[in-house]
């Protein structure tokens, strides 16, 4: 019986010695993966869409990733309507080189909830899955795209509620609008 108590005591000591991770208050992100799901939608199932699901890993020391609609509205009063907390720059491959596209409808947006449930500051880490739809036939607003076997890559950054900007990651290249 004493051996069991010593074992539990030793395990409790080990668990209590492991503290919280020491992440920077500036968000850090890394590439996880990209998945493309091609599906048919619409009334007759005639609209073909490539739904690209971008997964990135994140870490943040004070846990202030994500934003509510009210917090976003307050920040936009100060910083303007173009403020986004999940920023995606799109690059389209032409003649072997990637060119930055500046579409009418910007990709990216905002994570409209807090990634940490409590309001107490502290480290968080996890994975964000972000879906970007590419509807066949609706690519005119994206410069350099042809709608047939377009090769893209993304550059992604995050901003936290204090507007600290993460590092920028790039995805590997991928093909959409496969013919």
Written description of the protein model:
This is Lipoprotein. It comes from Arcicella rosea. The chain is α+β, with helices and mostly antiparallel strands and 179 residues long. The protein has a single domain, classed as Sandwich (Immunoglobulin-like), CATH 2.60.40. Helices cover 15% and strands 39% of the residues. It starts with a helix and ends with a strand.
Lay out the secondary structure.
Blueprint: H1 2-17, E1 28-41, E2 47-60, H2 69-79, E3 86-94, E4 97-101, E5 108-109, E6 124-135, E7 150-158, E8 169-170, E9 174-176
Antiparallel strand pairs: 1-2, 2-6, 3-4, 3-5, 3-7, 7-8, 7-9
User: What is the subunit organization of this protein?
Assistant: single chain
Q: Percent helix among the residues? A: 10-25%
Please tell me the overall pLDDT.
Answer: 84
- State the distance separating the first and last CA atoms: 70 Å
Total number of strands = 9
Count of DSSP H/I helices: 2
What summary fits the major beta sheet? 6 strands, antiparallel
Q: From the 3D coordinates, which CATH architecture would you assign?
A: Sandwich
Q: Tell me the domain tally.
A: 1
Uncertain ranges: 4-16
Please state roughly what percent of the residues sit in beta strands, choosing from under 5%, 5-15%, 15-25%, 25-35%, 35-45% or over 45%: 35-45%
CATH topology: Immunoglobulin-like
Q: What's the SSE pattern? A: HEEHEEEEEEE
Give the CATH level 1 class: Mainly Beta
Summary keywords:
Lipoprotein; 15% helix; 179 residues; 9 strands; elongated
Task: State the gist of this model.
This is Lipoprotein. The protein has 179 residues and is α+β, with helices and mostly antiparallel strands.
């Amino acid at each position: 019986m004493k051996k069991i108590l010593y074992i539990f005591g030793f395990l409790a000591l080990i668990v209590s010695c492991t503290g919280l991770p020491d992440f920077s208050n500036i968000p850090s992100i890394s590439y996880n993966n990209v998945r493309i799901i091609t599906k048919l939608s619409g009334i007759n199932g005639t609209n073909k869409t490539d739904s690209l699901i971008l997964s990135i890993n994140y870490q943040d020391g004070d846990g202030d990733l994500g934003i509510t609609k009210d917090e976003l509205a307050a920040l936009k009063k100060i910083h303007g309507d173009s403020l986004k907390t999940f920023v995606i720059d799109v690059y389209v491959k032409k003649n072997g080189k990637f060119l930055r596209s500046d579409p009418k409808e910007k990709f990216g947006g905002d994570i409209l909830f807090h990634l940490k449930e409590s309001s107490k500051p502290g480290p968080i880490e996890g994975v964000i899955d972000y879906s970007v739809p590419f509807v066949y036939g609706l690519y005119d607003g994206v410069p350099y795209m042809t709608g047939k076997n377009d090769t893209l890559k993304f550059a992604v950054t995050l901003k936290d509620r204090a507007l600290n900007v993460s590092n920028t990651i790039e995805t590997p290249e991928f093909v959409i609008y496969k013919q």
